[in-house]
Design a protein that fits this description.
The protein is mostly helical. It has one domain. The protein contains 4 helices and 2 strands, in the order H-H-H-H-E-E. A two-stranded antiparallel ribbon has the order 1-2. A hairpin with a 2-residue loop joins strand 1 and strand 2. Helix 3 crosses helix 4. The N and C termini lie far apart (53 Å). The relative contact order is 0.09.
C-alpha cells in the first residue's frame, strides 16, 4: 500500500465516521435517528451479554468502550437495575 492509498483510506474512514454521526448534515432528525439506532443496538448487545452471565458494570463498560455512567443509563433504559456494581433483572419485567 502506497502512502497515497493509505491517506485516501484514512480520509474515507474519517468521512464515514463523520457521516454516521451526522456531522455532514444540519438536520437534527438524521443525528437523532443514528443516536437511536446506536442506543437500540447497545441495548440488544447488553441483553445478550447479561443473558450469558456477564453482569459486572466495569466489564460491560470496557466491552462497549464507554463510561460506567453511560452503561448504567443504557441498562436502566433496557429495564435492568443496578445493585452492587452488577446488572440485575428488574422485578418489574
Amino acid at each position: 500500500m502506497t502512502i497515497e492509498e493509505y491517506k485516501k483510506q484514512s480520509i474515507d474512514r474519517v468521512n464515514k465516521q463523520a457521516a454516521v454521526s451526522g456531522a455532514f448534515t444540519n438536520c437534527f432528525d438524521t443525528r437523532a435517528q443514528s443516536e437511536r439506532q446506536r442506543t437500540s443496538e447497545r441495548k440488544r448487545r447488553l441483553r445478550a451479554l447479561v443473558r450469558s452471565n456477564i453482569t459486572e458494570i466495569d466489564v460491560l463498560a470496557q466491552y462497549f468502550t464507554i463510561s460506567v455512567n453511560t452503561i448504567k443509563k443504557i441498562a436502566y433504559s433496557a429495564g435492568y437495575r443496578i445493585s452492587n456494581g452488577q446488572v440485575a433483572e428488574s422485578v418489574m419485567r
